[in-house]
Task: structure prediction
Amino acid sequence: MQGHHEYFNIGWLNLDRMFSTIGIMGYWEVVNSNDNDWDLLADILKAISKKAKEYSERFRMPINVEQIPGESMSHKLAKADKLLYGALAEYDLYSNQFIPMWEKGFTIWERIKIDGRFNKLVTGGGIVHIQINNHITPS
Result:
């Protein structure tokens, strides 16, 4: 780094330990816009992970695929799609979970099962929020 970055100079950072991330979001919108086709989502995640592996080998650096927190990007990406695609872009906000918190009609077990199915298709971090609206009992 030619002495330009203090953390490299003192050994806290090392280029040999750097990696790149492909951040993904909008999975619920893919499923919801395609007749609840969860298999399509699986195919997309597999294709992204395959491409990440190819690039990782090509550039000789680790590249992971992970769900991004999205607080700052979920609405910006939706807005960009509206600018690019007009009426075809129907969402004002993209989710950062396989089933977003605002979606009703899914049990806690369905949320866990779906998250487990798709979280194993990404190589980095994942996000799932499980909300329990009642007091938890032993049963």
Q: What stands out?
A: Helices lie at 6-9, 27-33, 38-59, 74-85, 108-119. Residues 26 and 95 are 5 Å apart (CA to CA). The chain is about 40% helix and 5% strand.
